[in-house]
């Protein structure tokens, strides 16, 4: 087993089996770190909790719902607005967050009375919203507050409202994945089958495991509709509470994120006989194959092929422009959950980038298995890394870009490593044919960013040390670069964006190397 031991974790010997390097010919029998275990004390882990996995990942994207957390306000605040789960009702679920704000006195004397008061006040404050989800946290679970009983009391007193209860306190699982399991089964047990939806097509699906990050869900729903398929419900991106209660009437469950939502798909198959079909929405080839698989289930192959041909003809040339300039770029794929394996091979095969590391903080062991199976040889795979291990990995691997979340991303920037937000995206959506172009453009802009490259110049070591900054600016102002000195890209006329900066750097610091020296203006008007 090719375990990798971090120097910073030598005092924690248990961490040795949580990182491996994939060698030639290695497969999952000989190259798999330990994962989905309780966090080791002393590692200063950033792993998410089960409450976060239930409320933040799956519950909160529902658009017409008051999402109430029963516990300390910090739990609520930590799971509010950190992902761009947009919706077509003016982003109601992003604008507001709700908490009972449990304090020490409530832990001693109980908080059920306060919970009921909060529920009533929330419905009064937003009279147009008649649906609510209540999420249990560690504090109120430990004191035994019966949120289910309180919810039932409110529904009896206010028959026009409906309330869903999710008992998924932080300690309910070793990571966010435990919360995914809890809320999947709770929704199925409590709400599925309690509403009869309107069926308008002979081809009806539930689109499951997508959370509409910057519009991902809407892109895919548009594709399905153009193929002649009715999307009955979206679990849960841009999904409405009542449509999700009618999931039992679909003919097929189309599953995107297998890790967060396979549980409800599997149970819908057992209880209602609805088959499950897994798809991938990232990359030209995987997306085309996925749309065709769904089409074949309903006999809509011609409609799917027409859609694929139209979208490919529209977006492939612009994607190829970027892919040609991303060959050999090194990336660390540190997104956490399903994107670990959705992206691991396709960004290499279609963009030419080299995946030098994969990791998951709050995913499941299954995420790591799929990610390692798809990534390239030599990649460093890490389960639940702490901040010091992430820093050590970046210094060792020297990636050009990391795909991760905000917290490790800010650390990377201090090391002068560019990062793209894999959880909420920089300029999404990333799904769909156009989305894949957006993703490639964001990688390109990260790698060839003039500001990022210039940030590495240490002007304190200039010969004229009295005012190095002033002298550098003076040198720049004296440099004369004509349009003839700039070699424009073949695809579009000279715009003077990246090339001019590259020439300036070459004249002022002839020995300066880096990817910026080959940068060109991209085919998008907003490529900078």
UniProtKB/TrEMBL annotation:
Residue span(s) of domain Nitrogenase/oxidoreductase component: 49-447
Superkingdom classification of source: Bacteria
Cofactor names: [8Fe-7S] cluster
Keyword Oxidoreductase appears in the UniProt entry: yes
GO MF annotation terms: ATP binding; iron-sulfur cluster binding; metal ion binding; nitrogenase activity
Protein source organism: Desulfosporosinus fructosivorans
CDD domains per record: Nitrogenase_VFe_alpha (cd01977)
Family: Belongs to the NifD/NifK/NifE/NifN family.
UniProt keyword list: ATP-binding, Iron, Iron-sulfur, Metal-binding, Nitrogen fixation, Nucleotide-binding, Oxidoreductase
Stretches that traverse the bilayer: none
Catalytic activity from the UniProt record: N2 + 8 reduced [2Fe-2S]-[ferredoxin] + 16 ATP + 16 H2O = H2 + 8 oxidized [2Fe-2S]-[ferredoxin] + 2 NH4(+) + 16 ADP + 16 phosphate + 6 H(+)
Name this protein carries in UniProt: Nitrogenase protein alpha chain
Its EC number(s): 1.18.6.1
């Amino acid at each position: 087993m090719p375990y990798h031991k971090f120097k910073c974790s030598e005092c924690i010997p248990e961490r040795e089996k949580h990182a491996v390097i994939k060698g030639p010919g290695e497969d999952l029998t000989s190259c798999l770190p330990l994962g989905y275990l309780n966090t080791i004390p002393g590692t200063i882990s950033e792993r998410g909790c089960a409450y976060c996995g239930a409320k933040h990942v799956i519950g909160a994207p529902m658009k017409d719902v008051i999402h109430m957390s029963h516990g300390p306000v910090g739990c609520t605040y930590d799971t509010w607005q950190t992902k761009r789960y947009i919706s077509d009702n003016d982003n109601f679920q992003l604008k507001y967050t709700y908490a009972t704000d449990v304090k020490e006195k409530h832990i001693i004397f109980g908080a059920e009375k306060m919970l009921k008061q909060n529920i009533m006040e929330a419905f009064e404050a937003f009279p147009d919203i008649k649906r609510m989800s209540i999420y249990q946290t560690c504090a109120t679970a430990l004191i035994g507050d019966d949120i289910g009983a309180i919810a039932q009391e409110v529904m009896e007193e206010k028959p026009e409202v409906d309330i869903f209860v999710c008992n998924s306190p932080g300690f309910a699982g070793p990571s966010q994945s435990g919360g995914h399991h809890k809320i999947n089964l709770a929704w199925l047990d409590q709400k599925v089958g309690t509403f009869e939806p309107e069926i308008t097509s002979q081809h009806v699906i539930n689109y499951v495991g997508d959370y509409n990050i910057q519009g991902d869900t809407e892109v895919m729903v548009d594709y399905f509709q153009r193929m002649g398929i009715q999307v009955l419900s979206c679990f849960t991106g841009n999904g409405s509470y009542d449509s999700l209660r009618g999931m039992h009437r679909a003919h097929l469950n189309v599953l995107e994120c297998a890790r967060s939502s396979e549980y409800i798909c599997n149970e819908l198959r057992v209880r209602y006989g609805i088959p499950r079909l897994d798809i991938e929405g990232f990359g030209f080839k995987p997306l085309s194959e996925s749309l065709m698989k769904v089409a074949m289930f309903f006999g809509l192959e011609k409609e799917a092929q027409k859609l694929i041909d139209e979208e490919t003809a529209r977006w492939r040339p612009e994607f190829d422009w970027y892919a040609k300039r991303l060959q050999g770029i090194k990336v660390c794929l540190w997104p956490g959950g399903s994107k670990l394996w959705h992206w691991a091979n396709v960004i290499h095969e279609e963009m030419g980038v080299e995946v030098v590391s994969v990791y998951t903080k709050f995913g499941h062991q299954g995420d790591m298995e799929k990610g390692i199976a798809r990534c390239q040889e030599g990649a460093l795979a890490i389960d639940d890394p702490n901040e010091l291990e992430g820093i050590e990995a970046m210094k060792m691997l020297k990636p050009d870009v990391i795909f991760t979340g905000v917290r490790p991303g800010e650390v990377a920037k201090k090391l002068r490593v560019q990062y793209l937000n894999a959880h909420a995206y920089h300029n999404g959506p990333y799904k769909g044919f156009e989305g894949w172009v957006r993703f490639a453009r964001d990688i390109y802009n990260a790698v060839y960013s003039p500001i990022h490259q210039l940030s590495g110049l240490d002007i304190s070591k200039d010969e004229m040390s009295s005012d190095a900054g002033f002298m550098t600016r003076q040198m720049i102002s004296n440099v004369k670069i004509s349009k003839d000195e700039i070699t424009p890209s073949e695809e579009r006329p000279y715009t003077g964006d990246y090339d001019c900066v590259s020439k300036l750097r070459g004249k002022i610091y002839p020995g300066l190397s880096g990817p910026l020296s080959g940068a060109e203006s991209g085919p998008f008007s907003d490529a900078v």
